[in-house]
Amino acid sequence: MAELEDVKDVQTEEGVVEVAGAEVTGTEGAGAGAAGAPTIEPLMDDIDFDTFSKSDMRVCKVLDCVAVKKSKKLLRFTLDDGSGTERTILSGIHMYYEPDELVGKTVVAIVNIPPRKMMGIDSCGMLLSAVWEVAGEERLSLLMVDDAIPAGAKLY
Question: Which residues form the TRNA-binding domain (predicted)?
Fold first, then answer.
């Protein structure tokens, strides 16, 4: 991990931002002062720690990912959540990702949400994503973590 003094945040005319040696192009990483600045939802009201603690967030490995037939939005994920039993989660992110690019990735899911039937398939959890707008266009990034983190690792 980079030390604080090694972290750089530079805006250039080309819209390139550099953070700890990583390069992000375009307005995605440009920050609030740039043209085409991202729009985010307002912060929600505070919750107490006990309420937060009820969410069981786990690292999951994507074993398989396929488009759900007759749906333009849904992807069906088969996940290793570390429990020894494969978990199925549906997520409406097909407009942002093709299924084959997600196989093998390491993602974060809330695993203690009751199953919800979508397109006749039980979805047993929720994948975490970041959502924002740039110039009126919605953007989404599925939260992915280091592949070295084992399936089932709990997030606090």
Answer: 51-156
Q: Which of 148, 149, 143, 153 is nearest to 83 (CA)?
A: 153
Q: What distance in Å separates the CA atoms of residue 73 and residue 65, rounded to the nearest whole number? A: 13
Does one domain contain both 30 and 64?
no
Torsional class of 148: left (φ above 0), alpha (ψ -120 to 50), beta (otherwise): alpha
Same-domain check for residues 10 and 61 = no
Does residue 43 lie within any of the structural domains? no
Q: What is the 3-state secondary structure (H, E, C) of 60-110?
A: EEEEEEEECCCCCCCEEEEEECCCCCEEEEEECCCCCCCHHHCCCCEEEEE
pLDDT of 91-122, one tens digit each? 999 999 999 999 999 999 999 999 999 999 99
